[in-house]
Sequence to fold (60 residues):
Amino acid sequence: MSAKTNCDYCINYAYDEEEDYYECQMSLDEDEYARFLKNSFTNCPYFRMGDEYKIVKKQM
Fold:
């Protein structure tokens, strides 16, 4: 059984400052996008755990 994913921890879930909201940056098909909007997007094939340390290293 696969573990559930949480978009809040995904590297592909980014904040859009211009629109003032978070969005998935992956190109989702219609069914995937509907599940994403309903917050029932479990076992996402695009989920990648965000690594804050890698982000900080790029900023240095």
The chain has two helices and two strands. The longest strand covers residues 13-16. The mean pLDDT is 78.
